Amino acid sequence: MDFFISSAWAQTAGGSSPGGGMQMLVFMGLFFVVFYFLLIRPQNKRAKEHRAMLGALATGNEVVTTGGILGKITAVSDNFVTLEIANGVAIKVQKAQIAALMPNGTIKNA
């Protein structure tokens, strides 16, 4: 019957080295720094540029919305912008939905 049960020998904990916890902390810190520079910082920079662009909107600017509508700004208020998308056709759009400021003359070329 002894041939079915092998003897169990006591072993030390494998993979444990002195200072292993410190290495893990350094690794996690390095991971956070890389995460910050690759993801968080560029996103904050884009958001800051978008806020600056929204603050500089004025009548006569040509813009495109996040939905892809191209139009000329005819009125600007605190939260909304009135866009003329065709002759005599105007819509109100939230300022936050303005995706990009286009060069003047874009509508004529589109």
Walk me through the topology:
Blueprint: H1 20-55, E1 62-65, E2 70-76, E3 80-86, E4 89-94, E5 98-102, H2 106-109
Antiparallel strand pairs: 1-2, 1-5, 2-3, 3-4
CATH architecture: Roll
Q: Indicate the CATH class.
A: Mainly Beta
Count of domain modules? 1
Strand-pairing-aware structural class: alpha+beta
Number of strands: 5
Report on the structure:
With 110 residues, this protein is an alpha+beta fold. It has a single domain, classed as Roll (SH3 type barrels), CATH 2.30.30.60. Helix content is 36%, strand content 26%. The protein contains two helices and five strands, in the order H-E-E-E-E-E-H. Strands 4-3-2-1-5 form a five-stranded antiparallel beta sheet, covered by helices on one side.
Which features would summarize this protein structure in a list?
elongated, SH3 type barrels, five-stranded antiparallel β-sheet, alpha+beta, 36% helix, 5 strands, single chain, 110 residues
Short description:
It contains 2 helices and 5 strands.
